[in-house]
From TrEMBL:
Gene Ontology MF terms in the entry: ABC-type transporter activity; ATP binding; ATP hydrolysis activity
Organism in which the protein naturally occurs: Streptococcus mutans SM6
Name used for this protein in its record: Multidrug resistance ABC transporter ATPase and permease components
Entries under Gene3D superfamilies matching the protein: ABC transporter type 1, transmembrane domain, P-loop containing nucleotide triphosphate hydrolases
Keyword Oxidoreductase on entry: no
Keywords: ATP-binding, Membrane, Nucleotide-binding, Transmembrane, Transmembrane helix
GO CC aspect terms: plasma membrane
InterPro entries per record: AAA+_ATPase, ABC1_TM_dom, ABC1_TM_sf, ABC_transporter-like_ATP-bd, ABC_transporter-like_CS, P-loop_NTPase, Type_1_exporter
UniProt domain ABC transmembrane type-1: residue ranges: 93-252
Pfam families linked to this entry: ABC_tran (PF00005)
Localization terms from the record: Cell membrane
PROSITE patterns: ABC_TM1F, ABC_TRANSPORTER_1, ABC_TRANSPORTER_2
Coiled coil (UniProt feature): none
Membrane topology type: Multi-pass membrane protein
């Protein structure tokens, strides 16, 4: 799962970019590794401007490495989120029944953060350690092959011990991720329920609720970080002991060669400096890996879109939408609820059809089955050729974009005929104060779009989007719930004018609205 996701991110970012970046990091780290050589030459030669210049240039390398890292990090930031967005787009409609928007946002942020840290911290650390060990092994072997091999073995032993010491309770990572999700859910709940909080003046209650989750998050992360620091301390003790042993053996062998002694000592000092963070970086890498695995697992990344079901949809040469013995079970987590059982009905072309029934009778499910959001468990849905279905419900929200983007969605431009129709319809729906030839529809509303208009205005904007569209099947799920009687009447009159070449179905709970419909289908037994 992790490998599959990281491969997708690399493919989207561009493998060539990674190759160039890693190659650049290798070259720059080799220059840094030459510092002991330059220093030993400077000490043993009174004046040597060439080595001095090389040494000073090498001191600038860490700053240059940041440019490579930043370029790769920002490319990874984009790709990590884009791959997740593509994955979520590919999910079936039922997938979202198990998630809150705040949970998905938290998981996406967590995964993107982990990917950036892998590129920002872990990848450069791996390159630095690999270059340090291999380059210094080569240099030391030039003086003594035995000491060079010993140096390589000591470095490998240190890294293996670091890997062994990282074995810890992986559940802590999952608990930490869960605690962060809970904190984000608390924030999301607060802002979504501002009216309730202000009405009850429950600010203290919300703060206590939030503090409880913050404390839980703090304690879990403190425990994880404390364990990392303890292991790091032990790794440093091991590293110092091993390097000290090599230093003792090396000085005994090079005692008559002042230049070699100095260079050897400097190499070991630089080795300690360059390898000292390996333990922390490795532990951090394991933590990042666990966090990435936990987050991807929660998203079910890599799973097939849905269990493949038998095809229950047939195209025929008629114009009506026909249900033939349709059954559907609503699934959430491990529970199943029978919503529809052996439903047969016909939604006629050119007629305005009302769909009525008690709460929970499956009205919205019927519309979502027609829209192909859901797949029936049994039965056949017959639909016309070249079907284009638009589904709008009372909870549909506007995009945080301009009015033009919302009205013409997914297109960003409207033809002159569409604009003329739009202005005429807006006047009839009495929102020409918002939408008229005198208003700039391209201006993006400041703040959240959903809070810029009343509930009724939002419903009317959604209705306008449907009326100027070219969909031949339009499904309204209680779209008039936010409208007054006059606006509802206008809505049905406008729908009547366009229904002649469409299948239009409306769910309504208002008995007084049934007079506007040509057909009424009840789901009550």
């Amino acid at each position: 799962m992790i490998i599959s996701y990281l491969k997708d991110v690399m493919r989207d970012t561009g493998k060539f970019k990674y190759i160039i970046s890693v190659g650049g990091l290798c070259v720059l780290n080799i220059i840094i590794c030459l510092q002991p050589y330059f220093l030993s030459k400077l000490v043993n030669n009174e004046v040597n401007y060439k080595y001095l210049l090389f040494f000073l240039i090498s001191l600038l390398i860490p700053a240059l490495i940041n440019f490579i890292k930043n370029d790769l990090v920002q490319a990874t930031r984009k790709s990590s989120k884009r791959i997740l967005f593509l994955f979520l787009e590919s999910r079936g409609y039922e997938y979202y029944n198990d998630y809150k928007s705040s949970t998905l946002q938290s998981l996406m942020s967590e995964i993107s953060f982990v990917c950036r840290n892998l590129v920002q911290e872990l990848l450069p650390s791996i390159v630095k350690v690999a270059v340090t060990v291999l380059f210094y092994t080569s240099l030391i072997s030039g003086y003594s092959l035995e000491i060079g091999i010993l140096y390589l073995l000591v470095c490998l032993i240190y890294m293996v011990l670091s890997a062994i010491l990282t074995q810890k309770n992986r559940n802590d990572i999952k608990k930490a991720l869960d605690s962060t999700v809970e904190v984000n859910k608390s924030i999301d709940d607060f802002f979504k329920n501002l009216d309730t909080v202000f009405s009850y003046l429950s600010f203290k209650h919300e703060l206590e609720f939030f503090d409880t989750r913050l404390t839980c998050e703090k304690n879990i992360y403190y425990k994880i970080q404390k364990q990392i620091h303890l292991v790091y301390l032990l790794q440093q003790v091991i590293l110092v002991f091993l390097i000290g042993s090599i230093l003792y053996i090396g000085l005994f062998n090079f005692s008559s060669f002042k230049q070699q002694n100095l260079e050897f000592i400097l190499i070991l000092i630089y080795s300690v400096l360059n390898l000292s963070n390996f333990g922390t970086d490795f532990l951090g890498g394991v933590e990042l890996k666990d966090r990435l695995e936990a987050a991807l697992s929660k998203l079910q990344y890599g799973n097939n879109r849905d269990i493949i079901k038998q095809n229950h949809r047939l195209i025929y040469d008629g114009l009506d939408v026909i249900f033939d013995n349709i059954s559907y079970c609503y699934k959430k987590l491990d529970n199943e609820v029978q919503v529809l059982k052996d439903l047969s009905c016909r939604f006629e072309y050119g007629k305005l059809t009302a769909l009525i029934g008690d709460n929970g009778s499956g009205k919205s499910t019927v519309l979502k089955l027609i829209a192909d959001f859901l797949i029936p468990d049994k039965g056949i849905i017959y639909q016309p050729l070249k079907t284009k279905v638009l589904y709008i419900n009372q909870d549909s929200v506007l995009f945080n974009r301009s009015l033009l983007d919302n009205l013409g969605y997914p297109h960003t431009e409207l033809t002159s005929d569409q604009l003329e129709t739009l202005y005429s319809l807006a006047k009839k729906l009495e929102i020409d104060n918002i939408i008229s030839p005198h208003t700039d529809l391209n201006v993006e509303i400041t703040g959240e779009m959903t809070k810029s208009f009343s509930g009724g205005e939002k419903q009317k904007i959604l209705i306008l989007r449907a009326l100027i569209s070219d969909f031949n099947i339009i499904l309204f799920d209680e779209i008039t719930s936010g409208l007054d009687i006059k606006s509802s009447s206008t809505f049905y009159q406008l729908i009547k004018e366009t229904v002649s070449n469409k299948v239009v179905i409306c769910i309504t709970h208002r008995k007084e609205e049934l007079q506007y419909f040509d057909e009424i289908i009840s789901l009550n037994i």
